[in-house]
Amino acid sequence: MAKTKAPPWTKYGIMLRDVMTGAWHDASAEFTTDMLAAFKDQDEQTVIELADNLGSIGKELTESVTPEVKAIFKVAGKAGVTAWKAHATDVLGSKKAELSLAEYLAELEGAMVLQLGILAETYPERVLHAEILRQLSLIVDNPFARIIDVEQITARVKILMESEHYWESFSYLHVSRLWQSTGVELAHRNGVDVMQVVEVMDKRTCPVCRIFHGTEIRTAAMKEKIDSSLSITDPEEYIKAWPFPRWNEIQLSTPAELTEKNAIPPYHGSCRGTVRFLYST
Ligand SMILES: [Zn+2]
User: Fold this and answer.
1) What is the pLDDT of residues 49-85, one digit of tens each?
2) Nearest CA to 195 among 281, 280, 278?
3) How far does the centroid of ligand 1 lie from the alpha carbon of residue 76, in Å?
4) 10 Å Cβ neighbour count for 169?
5) How far is the CA of 213 from the centre of ligand 1 (A)?
6) CA 234–ligand 1 middle distance (angstroms)
C-alpha cells in the first residue's frame, strides 16, 4: 500500500488542537466548529483561511478583562467587599443550577474580580511581600534558580516594587485563573470528568510547568475547589486555597500524586499553561 503523504494542513491540525485547549471561549468554540467542518471536507483553502484568524483567539478574554481587573485592584475597598458578597451569594446560591453558562460565567467573573479587589486592596503590601519572599525562596529551594545571577533576581524584585508592572502581572495571573475556571465549569456541564494540564513546552518552560504538563485533573474535585474558594473573604485564606506549587514539593511526585494536588495553571505569574477536556468516564 502506498504511503499516505501528510496533508498540507497538518500544521493547522496542530494549531486546531491548541485552539481546542481553550474551546470554552465562545469565539474559540465557533472557530473550532468551522475548522472541524473544513477538515472533514478536506477543503484546504478554507482550513488555511480559518487558521489565519487564529491570532486573536484566546487573547480576547485577556484583553477585555485585564484592564477591568487592574482598575478594580486600585479602587475596590469596602464597597468591593459588599458587592462581592452579593455576587458570591448569587453564584453559590440554589439558583446556580438554573443559570445558563453565560450567566454563570458572568457571575463567576464578577465574584472573582471583586474578591481579588478585596485581596489586593486590603493587603497590597502583603501580596507584594509574599511575592518577594517567593522570589527569594526560589533561590533557596530551586536548584535551577541557584544558577541565576543574584543581580537578575534583584532586578526582578525591583520590577515587582514598581506598582504598574506588579499589578499588570498580578492581574494577568487572575485573568488566567478565571479562564481556567470557566473551562472547568464547561467541562462539568458537558459531563467531561477528566481534564488535562497542557503547558507550552519550549526553552522558557519552567521546571514546575514541565512536571505538571500532561497531568490529569478531576473535573468534580476542581469545580468544588473553585466554587468553595469563591466564599473566602479572608485574603490569607485565599492565598492558602491557591498556593503556587513549589519545585521541592513536586519534583519526585508521580502523575497520580500530581492529580491529587488538584492544582491547575497558573502555577506562577506569566504562566502559559492551560487545561483541556480529556475524557468522560
Ligand atoms: Zn512555569
Assistant:
1) 777 766 565 566 666 666 666 665 555 434 444 444 4
2) 278
3) 30
4) 15
5) 10
6) 27
